[in-house]
Specification:
Glutathione S-transferase Yfyf (Class Pi), Chain A, domain 2; 10 helices; single chain; Glutaredoxin; about 10% strand; alpha+beta
């Protein structure tokens, strides 16, 4: 008997949010399996039996375990035959454009946005130490370069990252940038008219699922506002 697709995720995780939004946007039925990373639930023996990498997101499709958000999005696109604009299947050039972004983002936008967030909030909290401003500035420099390439190479004169319609690349990109909102650094992209307009287009296309998936991000921002002075001084 076929079971519902099981989705393991934590909406504090950018890739988890991206897959969650994609599932919702395409009305793909799934059994939600939230994992509280802050509680270390991904390190339990029960979790490791399913995913030895101790990461989210991952899916269990009737016994077929698949990790890594990019692989999951490609799998879901093909299995559920979603509209071509999400991940083109019939046009190899359009597909390759999406793949190009998916491969690029790991060590560029994803790395720099995630590490900016972590060094401003998570690492100081976990280690009970003030923010390491040198590391923050280092990743902000990398982030500035990534944003430049998003504007001048991926977007150029088109509406979305890989063409004139939204794709999985846009979901992943937007979810990464929203991590900056959690630490009040959204000006890093909102100050760029091209990126700001793109972000607004992506959000509009993905509502109401975008805001639903980012409720925890909005709450984290409120927490950060209250603790910012302590994080920058002494916890």
């Amino acid at each position: 008997m076929n079971m519902a697709l099981r989705y393991y995720f934590d909406l504090m995780s950018q890739p988890s949010r991206a897959v969650y939004i994609f599932l919702k946007q395409n009305n793909i039925p799934f059994d939600p399996k939230p994992v509280a990373l802050r509680k270390g639930e991904h390190f339990t023996e029960e979790f490791k039996k399913l995913n030895p990498f101790s990461r989210v997101p991952f899916i269990d499709d009737n016994g077929f375990i698949l990790t890594e958000s990019v692989a999951i999005l490609r799998y879901l696109s093909q299995k559920y035959n979603v509209p071509e604009h999400w991940y083109p299947r019939s046009d190899i050039k359009k597909q390759s454009r999406v793949d190009q972004y998916l491969n690029w983002q790991h060590l560029n936008l994803r790395l720099n946005a995630a590490m900016t967030f972590q060094h401003l909030l998570l690492i100081p909290l976990m280690r009970n130490k003030p923010v390491d401003q040198k590391k923050v500035e280092r990743f902000k420099l990398g982030l500035a370069e990534s944003l430049m390439y998003m504007e001048t190479y991926f977007l150029k004169d088109q509406m979305f990252l890989c063409g004139d319609d939204i794709s999985v690349a846009d979901i992943l990109g937007a979810c990464e940038l929203m991590q900056l909102n959690a630490v009040m650094e959204e000006k890093l992209y909102e100050s760029n008219p091209v990126l700001d307009a793109w972000m607004k287009r992506v959000k509009a296309r993905l509502q109401p699922n975008f805001d639903e998936a980012h409720q925890i991000t909005y709450r984290t921002c409120e927490i950060y506002k209250k603790t910012k002075d302590n994080l920058n001084a002494k916890l």
